[in-house]
Amino acid sequence: MSKSTTPTTAYHFSARATLAAIGIHLRRLNLFGPVRDHVHLAPKTVKHTPVQKVDAAVVTSLAGAHGLVEINKRLRAAPGLQAAFGRQACAEQSVVQETLDACTDATVAQLPQALDTIYRRHSRGYRPD
Length: 129
What we know:
mainly alpha; 7 helices; 0% strand
């Protein structure tokens, strides 16, 4: 018998293909860019930045999670979904939770400015004067 010479290719499959398509589109729009620019989180960066950890929480909730405890099951176990949102890896649930727990009143006060910027850029409801 001869050995197979078929080239192997790495494919990423996701049960949430629709969400993956949305992730690709959101990445092209740079939808979370204003959050990265306006919201400053204090926790240290070892493997993932604080904003990447918040992004993981948002993507997990979009994937239908009922809480952050499901990050490991819904996002970390789906490399195709991570790739669609521009990520190579995902922080563990406990690390994401620690980052969100470290948010202060000042951090939360920065969020409306970022959301207003997102609304002005992408909403059809916003009309400048």
